[in-house]
Amino acid sequence: MKKRQVVVNGDIPFRRVDWGLTKDLVGPERMGSEKIRFKITEYQPGYSHKLHMHPTQEEVIFVLEGRGITETKEDKIEIGPGSVVFVPAGVYHATLNLSNTEPLRAVIVKSPPDDEEVRSNS
Predict the structure, then answer these.
(1) What pLDDT, in 10s, does the model give residues 9-59?
(2) How far is residue 68's CA from residue 103's CA, in Å, rounded to a whole number?
(3) Phi and psi angles of residue 28, each rounded to the nearest 5 degrees, phi first
(4) Domain 15-116 listed as CATH 2.60.120.10
């Protein structure tokens, strides 16, 4: 039976990825979500998530703390606290932390929750 669930952010540990730390608060593995993934991500100082795209997945990035760059193959835009980035499915994108000392923290929402990640050759 499907039911409402609650999780406390502080109870879920981060996991290490190439460009920082991330944790899924809602997704298929946590809470059984079928249509959405909700996560907190920290891009470590000076690091970026390389240019990539998801063929069928839309993504929203809401910046909580720090300053960064959101990049596509067409442009680069500076982002900071309160910035909301929408990435349509099939668009190559990357996020770069501009700071050499502080993480860039963001909430990331993806729908559908799972899709392949295709890296750019450029």
Answers:
(1) 999 999 999 889 999 999 998 888 899 999 999 999 999 888 999 999 999
(2) 10
(3) -60, -40
(4) yes
